[in-house]
Predict the structure.
Amino acid sequence: MSTYERLVNSQNFFSPYLTQEDLSRFGREYINSGKYIHRLFPVLGVRLIAINDNIDTITRDESSEFSITLKNLMNDNYSRDISVKVRSQLQVKRKHGDFICPFAPYGYQKCEGNHNRIEPDPYAATVVQDIFNWKIQGMTNNGIAIRLAESGILAPLEYKRHKGEPLFSGFKMKERCEWTAQAVARILTNPIYIGTLRQGLRRRPNYKIKKSIPTEENEWVVIHDAHEPVVTKRTFYLAQKALLIDTRAAPRATTVYPLSGLLECGECGNAVTRSTINNGYKLYSYFRCSVRTKEDRCELKQVPEAQVEAAVLQLLQEHISAVVELDRCLSEIQQVPYQKINVAKCEQRREKLAAEIARYRDLKASLYEDMKEGLISKTDFCDIRGQYDARIADALIAQEQIDRELSIYLSGEQSPNNWMKTFTEHRGLKSLTRAVVLECIEKVVIHKDEKLEIIFEHSEDYARLVSSLQEYAARGILGEAM
């Protein structure tokens, strides 16, 4: 409640006297303070006395009127100055990686020795890990909320109450808060659980307005590895993938099927959905194109679910075996020649990009002369220059990616083929699970002849590695190593 609201609601508002220590105690907002002192109080017959400022409105003259206005302006400016300094200091702390929020998010607690740092809460962190694992295993957000409630695990706000922490929430508070699908979604989408600290997502327009507004993403302060993570980046990525896939659980079910949201029609490109038929004796499950279901204009016929899952499992097993074999070949290649070839290829790609950037910059420089000579209009000049700028920007981004690859090859600290662990860890796979499908498969395309096409995760890395090994074999490097 503002100073003015408290004043209006107080018994002293309609009394003939209103005594304050000084004008700043009455209010620091210049416009509203002046409105009350110069307009409302004289009409209502209220006498304002500011003791330290030696102001009494019943005895004021022209000089005191000016003094009141000047003091109100100075008080307002003092608030503005303090606001600027506080904002500046908070921004410095954000960029330094300090946690400046008053409360730690669920799963974390503030460090005892430094309240600008957070650490995992031993109890709540395990709950967060369970939430991520259940999502990857195929549970819906609502199913996770139901399981948490049935397990007797306190919701985030109730957990704060249990710990005796001060409570503040932008949401409406009930007598007892329960787990909801929205609360689960907020946890699953928050990168703070992988050690990434995002601050400055909202701001107040100025020191006079309390309501905050969202800021542009490029204005956020993002610090990676700012604190100890609760879940791995791999787990977080899989959870985001599960959230982005358009899926829904069957009625009264809390989990989705292994291939839900990953099936695509090879004829029209639309989603393939799962349906069931009960003939009174047995329940049959099959996949069919969603367009055929609605409009009967797709040539893809229904395919039994068991047939699709068996084919996907077989193709996945074959791909895992191929990746395991690639891993074996890599382990037998001499490391030095292997690095030299990759470094040489990166440098060649970088030189081509540098030449491309130089060419577009030269073309861009000649555009102005063409416009001066009347060869192109000003509109054409702006359009073509924009196209050149876009191509230069794309080439610079590609150069940065190549530089990152070069640093990996030259340092030897991290293998560029870590993606292979995604598949090699599942050697000997016997059945399809939601977690394995999310980790290994990007998309499954079903064609009208019932043939399947699987787009695996890291397919570009796989193709690049196969091409490199073929080149090593052609140069005799693979043979020497083996």
Notes: The CA atoms of residues 273 and 293 lie 9 Å apart. The chain has three domains: 3-95, 108-244, 257-482. The longest strand covers residues 272-278.
